[in-house]
Amino acid sequence: MTSAPPVRLLLGPQRPTRNIAESIEAAGLANGSFATISAGWQEAENDIDDLREIVTRPLLDLRLYARAEEVFQADENLAAMYRARQNRLKAQQRLYRLRLRHLAMAARQTIRADGDAVMVAAEKRHAIAQLRALDRHHLQRTGSIHRPFIEQFNVDSSPLLAQHHREIGEIIDECGAVLITGGNIVVLLNRMLLFGVDRLLADRHIVAWSAGAMVLTERIVLFHDRGPQGRRDSEVLGAGCGLIPGCIFFPDAEHRLREGERSRIELMFRRFSPDTCVTLDSGAALQFAGSEVATVNEVGRLNRDGGIGKLRAA
Amino acid sequence: MNRTLRKLFRKGAPNPVHLNAFIEKTDFPLVDGSDVTFVYRGHADAVFLRCWIAGLDTAQPFQSLSGTDLWATTIELPKGSRIEYKFEVIANGERKLILDPLNDVVAHDPFGANSVCQGYGYERPVWTLPIDEARKGSIETVRVDSSAFKEAREVQVYVPARFRKNRRYALLIVHDGADYLNFAALQTVLDNLIHALEIPQLIVALTQSPDRLREYAGDQRHAKFLAEELLPFLSQKYPLIDEPRARCIMGASFGGVASLHAAWSFPGLFGNLLLQSGSFAFSDIGRHQRGPVFDPVVRFMNDFREQPGSPAERIYISCGIYESLIYENRSLVPQLQAQQIDIRFEEARDAHNWENWRDRLRNGLSWLYPGPLWLVYE
C-alpha cells in the first residue's frame, strides 16, 4: 500500500517518441518491479521484452488476456455468458451509432449555420443537448448490459475468478507500480473488469499510455477521423475504471483527429463538457497526484473555440 | 505536339543516336498534366491506340513524326485516370495488336495483358503492394459437393494469419476468386488491410466457375449452390459468425450479377454485397443491344428492377466511368436506396479491368466490414 496520493502517469503512444523511462524517472517512482497489463495486445500480450528494455525495471506480467482465455476454457457457462454480453454490447453500439450519425450531423450543421445569432445559438445549444442526452442514455444502457453479467460472475461469487483476482493482487502487492500499455481498448477494459483489477488499482501508482490511459477514466470515447472511410463521429464506448475522473483522453490526436476542423473540435468540447478532453500525442506526459494535475509535458486540450490549446498544471 | 517531343524536334528531326538516347531516358507514355501522348517507334503503315474506353473512339490514329520512325498520338486524360491499352500496328499488310514496347507497366487479366497508362495524379495504392510486416494468411482448397451442379466444386479458402478456432469470423464469398488473387492482388490486399486493422480477420471463400457466362448470369443453380451448399459447408468447417451482417458476397462484371442474383434469390441470408462494375444490363423497352450472352442477365435484371425487394442490408457498388456499364450501375443506386438499403457508390476514372477492381477493394471492404482500428490505441 502507498501512503502518499498515488501517482497516475499518463503518456501518449510510445512510437515514435519513447518517453516512458524518463517520465517514470521524473515522476520519482521508487525503484521496484512493475506489474504489467498488456491485455490490449491480445495474443501478443506476453511480447513485453521490448518493453523491459525501455522501462529498465523488472516487469511482472499479469497475463490478463491469457488468464481470461484459461477461464473461458474452464467455465463454458461463463464463456457463453461473456460472449452473449459482448454481442449485446456490440448491438447496443450499432443502435447508438445509428442515432448518433443523424444527431451529430445536425449538431455540426447547426454550429455552422448562418442567420440570427440568438436564434442559431438556441438551436445549437439544443442540438448539443440532444447529443449529450444520447451519450448519457448510451452510457446507462451499456451499464445495464454489463450489470447482470457482473452480478453473476464476479470475484466474490466465482471461485475461479477469485483465485485469479487473488493471484493478480499478490503480484501487484510485490510491485512498486502498475504499467498499462496501449492496444485494443475493449479487450483491455473487459479483461481488467473480469478479474476486478480496477478494485486493485485504487491506491496504486499507475503508468499508462494510450488505451491504458483511456481505460482509467470514467467515460471512454472512441475516435478516428482518418480511418479508411474518413471522418467518423466520436462515440462513447461506455464507462471505464473511473480512477481518473473528469478527463477524456484522446491518444495520438495529431494523427487520428482532424485538429484543424474547428467546428468538430468545438462540438466535441461542448458534447463532453464538463470533462476535459485531453490529447496525448507521442511524447506527451501528464501526471496526476491524487485528483490534481501535478506536471504536464506536451499535453493538449480541446477548447471551446474549436482550437487545441496546452493543458496546464493546476 | 507534346512539349517533350517539341523539344526533341526543336532543331529538326533528331538523328538515330539522339533518338535512341531520348527513348532510353524517357518514361512513356508522356504524361503532361491531362494530356497523355503515346509514342510508337518502328516501321508501320499506320498505328492506332486501342483503349476500349466508353466515350472515346475505339481506335485513335497515330501521326508519323517526319524524318523519324516515331509515331505519336495524344489524348486528354483527366486527373487520377488509369487506362489499359494496346497498339494496333499495320505494317506490310499485316495488322498486329501489341503491348506498348516503350512502357513496362502492364496489367494482366484472364485474356492476357495490356499496357497501362497511369495518368496524372494516379498512384498505385500502397496497400495493394506486399508489406513485410503484414502476416500472410493461408489458402487452402476444399471440395464442396453440389447437387445444384451435380458435381463437386473446388473452392479456395483464405484463412487469416493468427486464425483461431475459438474465434468467430465474418465470411466473404468471392466470385472469380482465382482471378481476384491473380489479377487484383486480393491476398495481398486482405493481408495488408487485416494487418492495418482496417478490416477484421475474415474467412474468404474464393469460387471459380467453369462456365461463368452461364452460371453467373442469373442462374438459379448458382444461387442455390452458394446459399444451400457452399454456405452450410463453410459454416460447418469454419467458425463463422452466424448472422447475415457477417456474410458478404462479392464479384466483378458477371460476378457482380451472380452476387446480386444470389442475395436476391435468398433474401435475408446475406447482409452485405460488394459489386464491382456489375454487368447489370436491362431493357426498358425492346431488345437490349449487348448480345445473346446477356439475355439471361437482362431477364434477371428486368425482374429485379420490377421487384427489387431487399437483397442485402448494405451494398457497396463501384464502377469505372470509362466503361459502358457505368450507366447501368448508376441506374441501380437510386433503386436500391428506395428499398432503404444502405448504399455506398464509388465511381473511378478507370475502366472494366482487374486493377480498377483491385484499387477499390479497400473502400469497399472497410466500409462493409470495418476493422478494429477504431478500437485500437497503441
Structural overview:
The complex is a heterodimer of chains A (314) and B (378). Chain A has 314 residues and is α/β, with parallel strands linked by helices. Chain A has 2 domains: 7-72 and 153-310, Class I glutamine amidotransferase (GATase) domain (Rossmann fold, 3-Layer(aba) Sandwich); 76-152. Helix content of chain A is 47%, strand content 18%. The longest helix of chain B is centred in the middle third of the chain and has 18 residues, at 220-237. In chain B, the strands form 3 sheets. Chain B has an 8-stranded mixed β-sheet, sandwiched between helices. With 378 residues, chain B is of the alpha/beta class. Classes of the chains: A alpha/beta (314), B alpha/beta (378). The interface between A and B is medium-sized, with 21 and 17 residues.
Helix content of chain B: 25-40%
What is the correct CATH architecture of the largest domain in chain B? Answer: 3-Layer(aba) Sandwich
Q: Helix/strand-derived class of chain A?
A: alpha/beta
Largest sheet of chain B: 8 strands, mixed
Tally of individual domains of chain B: 2
The helix tally of chain B amounts to 11
What is the tally of beta strands of chain A?
Answer: 14
Compute the separation of the termini of chain B in Å.
54 Å
What is the CATH architecture assignment of the largest domain in chain A? 3-Layer(aba) Sandwich
The parts of chain A where pLDDT drops under 50 for at least 5 residues are: none
Largest sheet of chain A: 7 strands, mixed
Describe the global form of chain A: globular
Mean pLDDT of chain B: 96
Q: Please name the CATH topology of the largest domain in chain A.
A: Rossmann fold
Low-confidence spans of chain B: none
Shape of chain B: globular
Q: Can you lay out the helices and strands and say which pair or pack?
A:
The complex is a heterodimer of chains A (314) and B (378).
Chain A: E1 7-11, H1 20-27, E2 34-37, H2 49-55, E3 59-61, H3 64-74, H4 76-111, H5 117-152, H6 159-174, E4 177-180, E5 183-184, H7 185-194, H8 197-200, E6 206-209, H9 211-214, E7 220-222, E8 235-238, E9 247-251, H10 253-256, H11 262-272, E10 276-280, E11 285-289, E12 292-297, E13 300-302, E14 308-310
Parallel strand pairs in A: 1-6, 2-3, 2-4, 4-6, 9-10
Antiparallel strand pairs in A: 1-11, 7-8, 10-13, 11-12, 13-14
Helix pairs in contact in A: 3-4, 4-5, 5-11
Chain B: H1 3-8, H2 16-25, E1 30-32, E2 35-41, E3 46-50, E4 59-61, E5 63-64, E6 70-76, E7 82-91, E8 94-98, E9 106-109, E10 112-118, E11 138-146, E12 151-159, E13 170-174, H3 177-183, H4 186-195, E14 202-206, H5 212-215, H6 220-237, E15 247-252, H7 254-265, E16 272-276, H8 295-306, E17 314-320, H9 326-337, E18 342-348, H10 354-359, H11 361-368, E19 376-377
Parallel strand pairs in B: 13-14, 13-15, 15-16, 16-17, 17-18
Antiparallel strand pairs in B: 1-2, 2-6, 3-4, 3-7, 5-6, 7-8, 7-10, 9-10, 11-12, 12-14
Helix pairs in contact in B: 6-7
